[in-house]
Design brief:
411 residues, binds zinc ion, alpha/beta, Aminopeptidase, 2 domains, 35% helix, eight-stranded mixed sheet, single chain
């Protein structure tokens, strides 16, 4: 299988017809052509979390071809590549790229649209793999002048399944232990050509809850004989929405979302049970704890007001993504060098979440954002949208930014 894949890849590499639609202003260098072709190949073959078998095999094959020490099957489908610099001792810098696609049916129509029904690279992880492999290629070419080592972490299952944790369990943060960690996300809220970066929290922690509201079902015309689960669910949702507006300090950030309600079977039957499912987001541990405490209190106390009961399951998710202030300061000039003056912007934190946070909790580092928005080619849709697309110049800029950042930290 690997041989077939490699033939296909090399046929795609430098194929001018595949590049006809590119909006990259100039692709002068062989690696740039290769990076775009790789992204399109990954885009055409999306794989869901922990199923990234094809993607991982291409990654491993490429890293081996660059002369790296490669470990496969790390955290199920993850791949580690270790590049040792030849110019002496130095720190180890971890460069992470995520590989998974989303269970979304693609609504774009182009040559390289998803060929796997019900799966789509709608978050840009296809670009992350292409960037990761291009960074590996460029740094491997310069290894004679590099000190220390670079550990490439190609991670499965970022989208909510905890692939980073699985790779940590399998030893990605040891032997050697990275001194710094870097990751990026192509980002359609930011205009192409720009890099967004900030010290401190840039993405939120995300927890999940599921509540069961228990009443007593009965005839729709005889409510007095029932304890209406729909009514209790409705009041509970409204009460949950008071947490951010009344309990969280106005200058702090938090979100409580109920994204799912399930109850009832017929228009004239009062249901005896309702299920609510939702998520909470925050940047600080204090707000995170407050949100959990209040959700627990409301689920426990609101249904009894109506004669029912509430049961809660709390699922602790990823912590916030927090950038190390010192590392960010060191990297800003590197980003400016590749993006040009005025193109490095202060990133406004988002309440989205990312499991790179579990790495950055242990290793100081920086998670930064590469602008991918371009209205002229309809690259305007949010991440996870069926028409999601990026300006592919983000792949070139992302590679250059990651190479410069890594070299800066290697010293
Ligand atoms: Zn995503
Ligand atoms: Zn993503």
């Amino acid at each position: 299988m690997a041989k077939v894949l490699s033939r296909k890849l090399s046929a795609m590499t430098f194929a001018p017809e595949l590049l006809a639609k590119t909006v990259v202003p100039s692709l002068d260098l062989p690696w740039e052509h290769d990076a775009i072709a790789l992204r399109r190949d990954f885009h055409e073959h999306p794989e869901l979390g922990f199923e990234e078998v094809r993607s991982a095999s291409i990654v491993a094959q490429r890293l081996r071809a660059l002369g790296m020490e490669v470990r496969e099957g790390v955290g199920k489908t993850g791949v580690i590549g270790l590049l040792r610099g030849e110019a002496g001792d130095g720190p180890c810098v971890l460069v992470r790229a995520d590989m998974d696609a989303l269970p979304i049916e693609e609504a774009n129509d182009w040559e390289w649209k998803s060929g796997n029904k019900g799966a789509m690279h709608a978050c840009g992880h296809d670009a992350h793999m292409a960037i990761g492999l291009s960074v590996a290629r460029l740094l491997a070419e310069q290894k004679a002048t590099l000190r220390g080592s670079v550990k490439f972490m190609f991670q499965p299952a970022e989208e909510g399944l905890g692939g980073a944790d699985k790779m940590i369990e399998d030893g990605v943060l040891s032997d050697p232990k990275p001194d710094f960690a870097l990751a990026l996300h192509v980002w359609t809220p930011i205009e192409k050509g720009k890099i967004g970066v900030a010290a401190g929290p840039v993405m939120a922690c995300a927890d999940e809850f599921r509540a069961r509201i228990i009443g007593k079902g009965g005839h729709g015309a005889m409510p007095e004989q029932t304890v209406d689960a729909v009514l209790m669910a409705a009041h509970t949702v409204v009460a949950l929405q008071s947490i951010v507006s009344r309990n969280v300090k106005p200058l702090e950030s938090g979100v409580v979302t109920v994204g799912k309600i399930e109850s009832g079977t017929a228009f004239n039957v009062i249901p005896g049970e309702a299920i609510l499912a939702g998520t909470t987001r925050a940047f600080s541990n204090d707000v995170r704890a407050l949100l959990e405490k209040r959700v627990r209190e409301i689920i426990a106390t609101m249904p009894p007001v109506f004669g029912g009961q509430g049961e809660l399951t709390w699922i602790t998710g990823f912590p916030a993504v927090v950038n190390d202030a010192e590392v960010v300061e060191r990297l800003k000039p590197a980003f400016e060098k590749v993006a040009g003056e005025g193109n490095v912007i202060e990133f406004e934190p988002t309440l989205g979440a990312e499991d790179m946070s579990v790495v950055l909790r242990q290793i100081p580092g920086c998670y930064f954002f590469i602008g991918g928005r371009n209205g002229e080619i309809d690259a305007i849709y949010p991440h996870h949208h069926p028409k999601f697309n990026i300006d592919e110049s983000a792949i070139i800029l992302g590679t250059n930014a990651m190479v410069e950042a890594t070299k800066t930290l290697l010293g």
